[in-house]
């Protein structure tokens, strides 16, 4: 079953989580695009619009992260009047979630079930180290494999040198410089969108994500904004996120241009994004070393012998602090919300 869907990554694991919900009027589908209350989904019989069943809305009321999102695999149901509803979101294998600093303890789901999350950073104007580190931590946290794309490589005289330099910010992450201008184009990205594989693009507005999507599909499926001025920022932001199936199989998922990058959820993604520091810390004499003035601190030793850049450690400290503050805040909000529910009942 589902030959067409297997090109999009449908496999035995998704099929077995679907099986208990199978019935004559049900079918699996992948969400291409999620708008308020309505999703565009691709199933075995093509593209349809689907509204959300009550059970899905109920789950979303608890946490908006439960709403279907581009990339989700869902159980759809076709009603006698031909309406189609989404009855259930199948368990996500990976999820790219951006926590916001708004009052409720919620997050914004940007993409689901991608194999790779590419942080897209333009090579010009100068790449922003701190943004790259933060977005890579988000990418690691998603459970997918991170990738760093240096876009607009045609605007740099030596893109490979820049790539080598930035590789230090991205231990364990492949770094590729690509341009959508000229012949070499985006072919370096093909392995990440091979048959059955999904690549999500994450980056600031104007980074060139939509242009990459268009280059991969060979057609203009995403609107591209004219660059405003020398700051290289696009005029508008792509407001919606779209999963775009590619002609040769595989899919690419554009996320909205990130403005205020968003907060990290846990220290988990952070420790993987800063694997160099985590690795050093494992060699500190004390398990709870704060890498200050403690004796036997491997991090301090690496700083002293120059193998660890002070900027890198400062970055890591800043993000760690943010995670601590934010998780304390979220805990407080959750406790307050639970108290409110108790009072009401
Ligand atoms: N020189 C050069 N310019 C590029 C390249 N790719 C994209 N651009 C330009 O960069 C600008 C922004 O590109 P978009 O693809 O709209 O950027 P985006 O990341 O999708 O932006 P949002 O939709 O706001 O998130 C456009 O003017 C593109 O023409 C490239 O490879 N080389
Ligand atoms: Zn230490």
Automatic annotation (TrEMBL):
GTP binds at residues 151-154, 203-211. It comes from Paractinoplanes toevensis. Transmembrane segments: none annotated. InterPro entries: P-loop_NTPase, Ribosome_biogen_GTPase_RsgA, RsgA_GTPase_dom. SUPFAM superfamilies: P-loop containing nucleoside triphosphate hydrolases. One of its GO terms (cellular component) is cytoplasm. It comes from the Bacteria. Its main location: cytoplasm. One of its GO terms (molecular function) is rRNA binding. This is Small ribosomal subunit biogenesis GTPase RsgA. One of several proteins that assist in the late maturation steps of the functional core of the 30S ribosomal subunit. Helps release RbfA from mature subunits. May play a role in the assembly of ribosomal proteins into the subunit. Circularly permuted GTPase that catalyzes slow GTP hydrolysis, GTPase activity is stimulated by the 30S ribosomal subunit. It holds the Pfam family RsgA_GTPase. One of its GO terms (biological process) is ribosomal small subunit biogenesis. Monomer. Associates with 30S ribosomal subunit, binds 16S rRNA.
